[in-house]
């Protein structure tokens, strides 16, 4: 029996075991398998391991997407988490090449995936509060939002959760250094049904402008004297 003689349900099941590249390559072999590749039922879950993968054409975005994960664990993530004013020219050039990649992708998700239930972002140092705000507004069924090592996420995201996260039940903001204890307490007070976790976030040193850092250093020296 040839693979194309299997019914659609069997083919979808077989495709589900393949990674995105393998699915795309198999879809190129014949029109019937291409139709299976384009079936929305195949794309309810998407996992990415670097921003580069977001630019490929080996997946489909649509209303069927329920669970999305973008987790970047490369050593290069450390560069993205350095404060902008502290980066050298090489680091700035590196970040510039992918600075908007994840945010642009998430904005695309906002317009095409209204039924999203869970989003996990790890190491996405350029994702902004505004991006998460738009996602909460456009994906009203979102129940789980897990953010880890996303340096630009701040209390503005926490405020967006209290305003637009009616369906949210799980919120993680781990190692997000610009999240404060005050912001976390507001979420706990306004959204008691949300399971909140913030490992290390409120205890890390937040970003600040160079001028402010210099003033703090001068004040510290005066106290010592």
From TrEMBL:
It comes from the Eukaryota. The keyword Plastid does not apply. SUPFAM superfamilies: F-box domain, RNI-like. InterPro entries: F-box-like_dom_sf, F-box_dom, F-box_LRR-repeat, Leu-rich_rpt_Cys-con_subtyp, LRR_dom_sf. CDD domains: F-box_FBXL22. Pfam families: F-box-like. Keywords: Ubl conjugation pathway. The keyword GTP-binding does not apply. Residues 9-44 form the F-box domain. GO terms for cellular component: cytoplasm. This is FXL22 protein. The gene is Fbxl22.
């Amino acid at each position: 029996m040839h693979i194309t003689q299997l019914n659609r349900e069997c083919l979808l099941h077989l495709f589900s075991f393949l990674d995105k590249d393998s699915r795309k390559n198999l879809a190129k072999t014949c029109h019937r398998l291409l139709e299976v590749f384009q079936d929305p039922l195949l794309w309810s879950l998407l996992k990415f391991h670097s921003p580069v993968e977001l630019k490929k054409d080996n997946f489909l975005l649509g209303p069927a997407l329920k669970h999305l994960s973008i987790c970047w664990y490369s050593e290069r993530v450390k560069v993205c988490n350095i404060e902008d004013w502290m980066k050298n020219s090489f680091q700035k050039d590196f970040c510039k090449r992918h600075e908007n990649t994840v945010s642009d992708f998430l904005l695309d998700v906002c317009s095409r995936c209204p039924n999203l239930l869970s989003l996990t972002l790890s190491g996405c140092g350029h994702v902004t509060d505004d991006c998460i705000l738009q996602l909460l507004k456009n994906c009203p069924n979102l129940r789980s939002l897990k953010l880890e090592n996303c340096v630009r996420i701040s209390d503005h995201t926490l405020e967006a959760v209290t305003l637009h996260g009616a369906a949210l039940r799980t919120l993680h903001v781990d190692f997000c250094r610009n999240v404060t204890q005050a912001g976390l307490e507001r979420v706990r007070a306004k959204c008691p049904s949300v399971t909140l976790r913030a490992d290390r976030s409120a205890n890390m040193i937040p970003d600040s402008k160079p001028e402010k850092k210099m003033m703090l250093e001068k004040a510290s020296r005066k106290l010592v004297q």
